[in-house]
Amino acid sequence: MHRQAWAYWFIAPTTLTIFLVFIYPLGVALWTSLHYDIM
């Protein structure tokens, strides 16, 4: 159980970081494309 808790605390921030690294540029690209379409 202790090992699972350690694994969770190690994996959770890693997953969050990967998620942000992948989603943030995608969101920025989508946002800029939408603004260019409006302009």
Structure description:
- Helix content is 95%, strand content 0%.
- The protein has one helix at 2-38.
- The N and C termini lie far apart (56 Å).
- With 39 residues, the chain is an all-alpha fold.
- The longest helix has 37 residues, at 2-38.
Question: Can you summarize the main beta sheet?
Answer: none
Radius of gyration: 17 Å
Going by helix content, strand content and strand pairing, the class is mainly alpha
End-to-end Cα distance, whole Å, is 56 Å
| Structure annotation, total helices | 1
List the helices and strands and how they pair.
Elements: H1 2-38
Q: Top keywords for this entry?
A:
mainly alpha, 39 residues
The gist of it:
The protein is mainly alpha-helical. It has one helix at residues 2-38.
